[in-house]
Amino acid sequence: MSHLTNKLKDNIKKYLKRKTRVNTKIKSHKPKYRLIINKSNLYISAQLVDQSGDIVASINDKKSA
Questions:
Q1: pTM score, two decimals?
Q2: What is the DSSP letter of 23?
């Protein structure tokens, strides 16, 4: 059982390492705009955010089944 918990801990460590690596690349690149997409079971929404964090455009839509 401890082997499974160690494997799970290793997977979490790898995930966090990958997450920080990707975030540092994104933040160091300084793109003019970022596209943020949020999905739920019923809706999908997208926001376009500029460098200062202001929302430039947004859209909401209901997913079709």
A1: 0.53
A2: H
Q: What is the pLDDT of residues 21-53, one digit of tens each?
A: 998 988 887 788 999 999 999 999 999 999 888
Give the burial class of 25: count Cβ atoms within 10 A of its Cβ; 0-12 exposed, 13-18 middle, 19 or more buried: exposed
Host H or E run for residue 41: none
The conformation of residue 32, written as its DSSP 8-state character, comes to S
Strand residue runs (E) in 1-65: 33-39, 43-50, 55-62
Structure tokens at 18: 């990958």
* 10 touches 4 (CB < 8 A): no
Q: How many residues does the chain have?
A: 65
Tell me which DSSP letter residue 40 carries. -
Paired tokens of 47: 């926001």
